[in-house]
User: What shape does this take?
Amino acid sequence: MDRKIPETASEAGQEVEAWDNQRGLRHPTRQQAMACLRSLLAFIGENPDREGLLETPDRVLRAWEEYFGGYDADADATLQTTFEEVDGYDDMILLKDVDFVSHCEHHMIPIYGKVHIAYVPRNRVVGISKLARVVDIFAQRLQTQESLTAQIANTIDEVLSPIGLAVLVEASHQCMVTRGIQKTHAMTVTTAFLGSFKENEKLEQRFLRMVSA
Ligand SMILES: [Zn+2]
Assistant: This one.
């Protein structure tokens, strides 16, 4: 059986490169991406044709489709379904300990940690699972922790326009743990405070206490 992965789009048959108009980017075919991965295997001194590695480019791409599925998802649309009936509830709503896995845009190495989100609703609230979904959509892209924090906060702020919003991200960057300075236990914390959380220090302090409790 010939298991050689095609090197070019024409070799791969009908599959052709596509142009992504929305982002103005050229999308290589899956076959082209697999050819690149074969080159990377050879680059590190491997033989991409040895049995154990034959399926590796395909497996890596499947893993990447999972890790980077956030590019094709619409975070704004996720938050469109809201509820008005809250019986006058006007305090913060806190979603704690939302686990995430992302990848740093500098090394493409995992960043993982937790996101905590609190908002004071302005009439409308959103399903808690939708907030967790927004975290996943932005985490499943190449990121910096600063951008991840800002994107989560800005999207929730724009779509729900809450009275106040707080986002805290605490994460371990595996590029710091496994290479370079090798700091195993270093955690990076980033925050975004908007509206009443920014203006009212007591509210901000309450959020921080509830998150660390
Ligand atoms: Zn990195």
User: Anything to note?
Assistant: Helices lie at 30-43, 56-67, 75-78, 128-139, 145-160, 174-177, 196-199, 201-212. Residues 18-67 form a domain with the GTP Cyclohydrolase I; Chain A, domain 1 fold (CATH 1.10.286.10). The chain has a mean pLDDT of 90.
